[in-house]
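Request: Have a read of the protein record below and say how the chain folds.
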Amino acid sequence: MELCFDPDLATEVTLQPIERFDLDAAILFADILLIPHAMGQKLTFSEGEGPVLSPRLTPENLTGFRDRNILETLAPIFETVRKTRSRLAPEKALIGFAGAPWTVATYMLNGRSSPDPAALRQRYYSERGFILDLIETLVEKTVDYLVAQIDAGADAVQLFDTWAGGLPGAVLREVSVEPLERIAAGVKGRRPETPVILFPKGVGEKAIDYAALSVCDAIGIDYSMDPDWAKRNLSPHAVVQGGLDPLLAVHGGETMKNSATAFLKAFRGGPYIFNLGHGFTPQTPPEHVAELVDFVRGR
């Protein structure tokens, strides 16, 4: 948390991958749970356990959280964006981001990472009004947060819905597709020239529901998705980004290159942003990242 809220240090972390690997874009160093923290749900990190939010969210304390002005608390994040943009070369893009409402809500409701996603679905069925009220609150806060990032210098913004996978279709639409559509529309209503990237992890063929949204400029795909299927079904609607299994970057070598080639071949002749199908894992050798970047640049 100290690192997230120190603009000088967070800028250095954001820029290190660019300086080391000469990537085409930087993505803001922050955490997807900063919005609930700014709303009054204190965020800490427990060693070996991950994020912890307290107090847990209830119908009784949601109103107090909703009334908080998050932008004042998150001012250091916007300063990080400004500092990073001022040090990036003009041809390098800066991507701002936020967690999607459903993913953020799962942490707010549970107080920490959930070992059993089914329990959260059960809460949706039993407390649907409360859950949707929370999601709508997060939609409003997220629009403000992303617009402030754009005003500070972000060239594009991305929304991560890490826990969207496995939801039944009707639930997915209500807690993920429609909220992301409202956020993207809210951002574009205020900053119409800014591209919005949606990344719903694990949704399979339901990715079409996101890509087909008029406010979706690009769709992130995870490592479980077939690149040929994505080319046929998603590319007609939006730019496709990602797909490579992060564990291949741990392995490196020809196996990694062969998989990268499959994505490059599948999307040849159309707009495509090469990227992983989720984040790098901590055990990834930096030398393999350099190997992957050099290989893709040379194709």
